[in-house]
């Protein structure tokens, strides 16, 4: 219990320090001004989300091969946490875009691909909601999860390739593109903090799932016996 | 019996069943026609705009139609539990998927080719001279739709709300197919009649990737 | 793989089958010898269907193994030499009787399948109706076609899940005759039943399941009749 509390405190501290760095350590961007600072949160959340989805993918494979319930619990936890971070990316996008470029949404390659990614994992969670039997649910969602993840590079690739044929003004820029040294350091720290937060949320969610499923099992056994 | 011979026998059965009732083909063709007509109300079909929007809308119509047409694929095997006897009779469960995805590809391709002249007339887009290339693009696109769709149909057949679940699972997954097929089709219908090898190769890659995934994991979808 | 090498027995070793927290089968261990005709009895939900489907390799046990004993070495083949008759016919209504049988016969790799199908259809008296759509058949006739389907590849193990449900008395008689012939020719039979009938009278052994566990076995204690009547009353 103490270990969890300490770990939680460390993560919160990391996030707070990162936030401070985002606002006070990083220099103001030349053309966009203060609003650019949201980039540190935006891009770092994106990366943390992707890592979470990768964890989900690996968990899905382990479940299909070994059928140990814990992989199913890791999978759903990683998917939900990944979705949360991806949602942050999708919301901070417009918040950034509007003051700078005057538009709420831009169908740029990365944002569009991320939106599809987001929908794939929403579909994953919806599927889980539609299958009652736990072992079936775990297996079917694991296989869909695998299909969804292998689709991701194809989605990103297709959209990026399509964008090269139908170019739009580049507005959001890649992470690390044109970042001067201090900015780059602040960005990497932000990525670290977001990943630490991701791991914390994942483990807490896993705990919750494990407890709930174990309780339901005991309840079912009691009903029968 | 080998995978290929099992799949061929099963494909024969799928085709024979459909040719007798023709219910999948007729309803799918009518559905695509309806969607295309409705789409035509959303922009000015006589202007040059047509060539820009039309291929994308056509493929969207194919995708929607497929997400409906693929519903019965595994659902009908629940009648009389025929899925169980198929599993008992074949040497490799992948034969079941192979047969169904081949049948679905052929059905989709058939309806798409039937719609091509109608589409050409409605949107004033001449298709002469590029028909073989269009058939190739339609085939690769339909194969991609079928591979993913057959797999997902096996999944959604075991879920509640399956009529909505299949499109929800399938449509985002098929985004790359939509983009690649629409682009390749648009390039062919353009006055320059360009054959976009890059998009065609991309479709082929998509097909291979998902065929491999289905081969690796398909049997688990049929488990109890 | 479609020609069975010889009669086989079935060994269930500590089979567990769980459906979402509920155990349909708990540590079921059972050894069925070659050529035995076993009646599996028990209330609804006692696990009979699950056990049969696991034997047919349709369902995968949560833990434990099922093996066919006495077969060719390395019996891991997917096409196990079993015939399976269930309550559902496992036939396509939109195909004719002959088309159904030819389909499954070809998939199984039955040699000279057309001859085999014709022969079996004649034996069951359905040869004249062979080209009729299965949906036009009565339940009794459909079940006959289902039994034929199960016997196409001359299996050495026959699994039946409440095969007499919904059958008229003529069809039940026919089924009993057919099973008796198979039993006498050495086929291993495992059948689940929920009531006494001419079919249960064929059993050389009875096993009772209760809540997923073996609750009685005439091979260890009691007689076939005792176990059968016990379950009818309960």
Describe the structure in your own words.
Chain A contains 6 helices and no strands. Chain A starts with a helix and ends with a helix. In chain C, helix 2 crosses helix 3. Chain C has 6 helices and 9 strands. In chain C, 46% of the residues are buried. In chain C, the strands form 2 sheets. Chain C has a 6-stranded mixed β-sheet with strand order 5-6-7-3-8-9, sandwiched between helices. In chain C, strands 2-1-4 form a 3-stranded antiparallel β-sheet, covered by helices on one side. Helices cover 30% and strands 26% of the residues of chain C. Chain C is of the alpha/beta class and 234 residues long. At the A-B interface, helix 4 and helix 5 of A face helix 7, helix 8, helix 9 and helix 10 of B.
Care to give the gist of this entry?
The complex is a heterotrimer of chains A (225), B (224) and C (234). Chain A is mainly α and 225 residues long.
Q: How many β strands of chain B by DSSP?
A: 0
Rg of chain A, please?
Answer: 20 Å
Largest sheet of chain B: none
Q: How many helices of chain A in DSSP terms?
A: 6
- Range of helix content of chain B: over 70%
What's the overall geometry of chain A?
Answer: globular
Structural class of chain B: mainly alpha
Largest interface, Cβ cutoff 8 Å: A-B, 28 and 30 residues
Please tally the β strands of chain A and state the result.
Answer: 0
Beta-strand percent range of chain B: under 5%
SSE sequence of chain A, one letter per element: HHHHHH
Uncertain stretches of chain B: none
Mean pLDDT over the residues of chain B: 93
Question: What keyword list fits this structure?
Answer:
heterotrimer, B: 224 residues, mainly alpha, C: 234 residues, alpha/beta, three-stranded antiparallel beta sheet, 6 helices
